[in-house]
Amino acid sequence: xxxxxxxxxxxxxxxxxxxxxxxxxxxxxxxxxxxxxxxxxxxxxxxxxxxxxxxxxxxxxxxxxxxxxxxxxxxxxxxxxxxxxxxxxxxxxxxxxxxxxxxxxxxxxxxxxxxxxxxxxxxxxxxxxxxxxxxxxxxxxxxxxxxxxxxxxxxxxxxxxxxxxxxxxxxxxxxxxxxxxxxxxxxxxxxxxxxxxxxxxxxxxxxxxxxxxxxxxxxxxxxxxxxxxxxxxxxxxxxxxxxxxxxxxxxxxxxxxxxxxxxxxxxxxxxxxxxxxxxxxxxxxxxxxxxxxxxxxxxxxxxxxxxxxxxxxxxxxxxxxxxxxxxxxxxxxxxxxxxxxxxxxxxxxx
Length: 350
What we know:
Elements: H1 27-42, H2 69-94, H3 108-118, E1 123-130, E2 138-144, E3 150-155, E4 160-161, H4 164-167, H5 173-182, H6 187-190, H7 197-206, H8 211-218, E5 248-250, E6 258-260, H9 261-270, H10 295-298, E7 300-301, E8 307-308, H11 326-334, E9 338-340, E10 346-348
Helix pairs in contact: 3-5
GO molecular function: ubiquitin protein ligase activity; zinc ion binding
Keywords: Metal-binding, Zinc, Zinc-finger
Pfam family, one: zf-RING_2
């Protein structure tokens, strides 16, 4: 084959058939077309904000001090929490902390104990109040229980008793008796396990006066019920001698007759099975507490280690289990902790 003649390529930009073809436009025409179409394409995009010159001067300061609603709400919540915490801290500093949880109502367990305490015979032999700290007064009551055992009950921020039941951490009937019958506290405080200092002051302010306070208030004055101190004592048959300063008592219940204090103690020790009557009119004797205060000191200790004055107070010394929980009674009987006397009454083994 012979060599074919190939036409030389036209020069760039020359007006040839290829240059006029719409399929392959020349380069200068293509650049011009792209440049003319750019504004149309960019017009559909979001136009940038004009430069005001503030971008190079730092961030804009909000002088209104108001952020977005969400930020304002979160800020307000933080402020509220701070105020609440401050108020709570102030209350905790001003108010005294109760050592036991406040009871909104009397639990069933307490009602059973209270019923047992107020239906059994117990005697308040002595009351001693400690006011060395006026902001924190206390009172200790010496109480003869139902079996004649003498217990010490202290009414403090946390009331306590030295009986076996209370030593195990239970609320005993002796504390319930003292609060309800001796001190006569208000209903909402009677079943509490702890008191504040202000509540203690309120309890003792409204409690019946101490025997010593009553005696000091009366002094040597004679009221309308007491008869003149003359004649003889019905127990020892010896004339009264007021000038000697001897201690005497009189019947406050009815007749107003007088008796030597020591003679009355001997009289009371012989009485059994009931309250001590007046030697004259036989009315139940009303004393101020000092008349039988020494009884606990003369009683002998029993096997449990407590002073027992059952014989002096006319008690039989038996513990009544009729109001105790039946399950506990059965468990104690199975362990040999309970026994029965000749009358068929349950007694404690010790």
